[in-house]
Design goal:
With 139 residues, the protein is of the alpha+beta class. The protein is 45% helix and 22% strand. The strands form 2 sheets. A 3-stranded mixed beta sheet has the order 1-5-6, covered by helices on one side. A 3-stranded antiparallel beta sheet has the order 2-3-4. It is elongated.
């Protein structure tokens, strides 16, 4: 089974131009316009960088994430906390599933409305990741 572009519609180049997605065979590619030359970058190369950054952010703030989830759910019992902790422990497996299935269109639209944006260079390296609500180190 081919891979989906997880962040389709949320990726721009360094000049803030939208990066399109195309399929070559079973796999998705982000297409960056390099002065008229269409560079095809495997979507999993970009998506893994983004997901790893997001995972590092979540895990470095694990306690705050757990507390926020408990508050969001309106529950503060031991079993719910254990379930959330277990879910965080399975992030790697969940990321692999996401890489195969992609994000639902509604989730991508919601992320876009929230200001989520991935900036890549012509080689597909993530140069900036705008995640509203995340405080950067040193702030």
């Amino acid at each position: 089974m081919g891979r989906e572009a997880v962040f389709a519609g949320l990726v721009v180049d360094e000049y803030d131009q939208p990066v399109t997605v195309t399929r070559v065979g079973p796999d998705a590619y982000y297409v960056v316009d390099d002065q008229g030359f269409q560079r095809h970058i495997p979507s999993d190369y970009v998506d893994r960088q983004v997901l790893m950054t997001m995972q590092e952010t979540v895990l470095s703030n694990r306690e705050a994430v757990v507390e926020a989830m408990l508050s969001y759910l309106g529950r503060d019992d031991l079993f719910t906390k254990a379930a959330i902790e277990a879910s965080l422990g399975q992030m790697g497996e969940q990321m692999e599933q996401l890489m195969t299935q992609g994000l639902p269109e509604a989730a991508r639209q919601w992320l876009g409305l929230m200001g989520f944006k991935v900036v890549v260079d012509i080689h597909g390296d993530v140069v900036d990741l705008e995640m509203p609500g995340v405080v950067e180190e040193g702030e």
